[in-house]
Automatic annotation (TrEMBL):
Taxonomy of the source species: Bacteria, Pseudomonadati, Bacteroidota, Flavobacteriia, Flavobacteriales
Organism: Flavobacterium swingsii
Entries under Pfam families matching the protein: DUF4407
This protein's UniProt keywords: Coiled coil, Membrane, Transmembrane, Transmembrane helix
Chain coiled-coil ranges: 149-176
UniProt superkingdom: Bacteria
Transmembrane segments: 28-51, 57-74, 264-284
Stated name of the protein: DUF4407 domain-containing protein
InterPro entries reported for this sequence: DUF4407 (IPR025519)
Plastid listed as a keyword: no
Keyword Heme: no
Length: 366
């Protein structure tokens, strides 16, 4: 049962191959098994590749089955259409387009499996890229809010600076009138004289101005700080909203690009492995000597070709013979007087009918 299935996979004529030796049948069983297992690998590779796109097993497996059947049909067609020639060079020229197609198929099959084999290394590369993207995104969002945040901060600093300046002024007046009262500065007279009263009046005025400024500026500072918190919350919200997009940066194209950033040699050898598997049925058939099946197949094709050529030749001869016979018959009939009189009589009747019809038509017009 398994033998018949692999022979079916090889694309060989089962009836014709059954009349060949066991060794010849075994060769085509091997070719068919290679075609079958290549399709299995194509199914695994395409299913994984589509799973990275859809994140769902059902569409991935469904498309993987379709892709496996497509690869199976292509490989089977490629192997079954190669014919053994008397010269290897002629066989190579015949197989060149099929080898190129096999190489394309091998690259397509190997790439998703390479991604799976080097998954851990690819995840490391993707993690670095995600971190870079997150930092770049944070910087971009921060730059977007930077002007508003800096303007708000400068306004808060300005209000605080005004308060600090006025507080220093009040403290200076305080130290001045205290020093005047103690006699350690100013007039250096102990007691509360006219100069003391003047200086304490300045202090009291500055203190009132400070109190008024504190009331107004502290309210403004509170509003500005509230606005700063809102701006910072908007900034954090924007970063949080864009982070899932960065976290989902691990699709098929991203993984292929990440694979390209890894050392190329291991990936290259894996591709060579799949290339060898995909082209092995073709190479095996080219390198194997012309076998019993090839001779029998060539004999059947030659016999059919000869039969068709003979039939075409016979049809051409029959056509030429019939043409010659009819030419001679019509040449003999041409001299028959009775036939001439009969055709003349018919022509006269036809001319009379045409003339009568013309006259009737003219009368209806007038």
């Amino acid at each position: 049962m398994l033998k018949r299935f692999f022979i079916l996979c090889s694309g060989a004529d089962e009836d014709l191959l059954s009349s060949c030796s066991e060794g010849e049948q075994t060769k085509y069983v091997g070719i068919g098994a290679t075609v079958f297992f290549t399709a299995i690998m194509a199914f695994i590779a395409s299913s994984y590749a589509l799973f990275t796109v859809f994140d769902s097993i059902y569409p991935s497996v469904s498309f993987g089955i379709v892709w496996a059947f497509l690869i199976f049909n292509l490989d089977r067609f490629i192997v079954s259409t190669i014919r053994k020639r008397d010269r290897l060079w002629n066989e190579f020229l015949q197989a060149t387009p099929r080898i190129i197609l096999a190489m394309i198929i091998a690259i397509v099959i190997s790439k998703p499996l390479e991604i799976k084999i080097f998954e851990k290394e690819i995840n490391t590369v993707l993690l670095k890229e995600k971190n870079q993207l997150a930092m770049a995104n944070k910087k971009q969002v921060s730059d977007y809010f930077k002007s508003d945040l800096e303007k708000n901060k400068s306004e808060i600093d300005s209000l605080k600076s005004q308060l600090s300046k006025k507080e220093k002024e009040v403290n200076t007046y305080y130290e001045t009138y205290i020093s005047e009262a103690e006699g350690t500065a100013g007039t250096k007279k102990l007691g509360k004289g006219p100069v003391f009263k003047e200086k304490i009046a300045k202090h009291d005025l500055a203190k009132k101005e400070l109190d008024t400024l504190q009331k107004t500026n502290l309210v403004k500072i509170a509003e500005k700080e509230k606005k700063a918190k809102i701006l910072q919350a908007d900034l954090d919200k924007k970063i949080t909203e864009t982070q899932p997009i960065i976290d989902s940066f691990d699709g098929l194209m991203a993984r292929i690009n990440a694979l390209g950033k890894l050392p190329w040699l291991p990936s290259f050898f894996i591709m060579l492995l799949f290339l060898a598997i995909e082209t092995s049925p073709i190479i095996a058939k080219m390198l194997s000597p012309k076998g019993e099946y090839d001779y029998k197949l060539e004999d059947n094709e030659t016999a059919l070709k000869t039969h068709i050529e003979q039939n075409n030749h016979q049809r051409n001869l029959q056509k030429q013979t019939d043409a010659s016979i009819y030419d001679k018959i019509y040449a003999d009939i041409k001299e028959e007087k009775d036939l001439y009189e009969y055709k003349k009589k018919g022509a006269i009747e036809l001319l009379k009918l045409q003339s009568d019809s013309y006259v009737e038509k003219q009368k209806s017009v007038m």
